[in-house]
Amino acid sequence: MNRKEELLIAVDGDGSALGVREKIACHSGEGIRHSAFLVMLFDGAGRLMLARRSPRKVLWPGFWDGTVAGHFHPGEDKDVALRKRVLEETSLACGSPKYLFKFAYAARYGDVGVENEVCEVHEAAVAPSGTIPLDPEEISEYRFVALADVEKDIAAGAPDLAPWLVLAIRKRGEHGIP
Asked: What is the pTM of this model?
């Protein structure tokens, strides 16, 4: 399915479905609010796997992300979608990601496009061994970092972090999630 034909779930500010829209329409102009997710993967040492978005990505290429971000599609089981997307992008199998919270936001990437989403944040544990094969269309590199180091980067205004990652890390703190 090419980008133009991909269908996303349009939602209200609380994340309730309003209908289906083409992905390109959701990311153009002021954007159409749609359903999205972020899965943050943690290794056995409690470090977050940051993933650098592929330079091939239209929005925020080369930015660091909180492992796997994506969109829910019409008719998908959320748990299956999350685990499938993690496996496709990182080749890592994880159990059912734990739902943490959701938040609405909008962010513009220059004159290229916009994200206008209700983003569900999930986390899961992984036990990587050796080099992790990545989907080069999605991720160009990865690194495992302490969450405290990411928080320091955010506080310092690091310019290369995806906006939804910054919001998700801040919201973790607001929700008292270590």
From this structure: 0.94
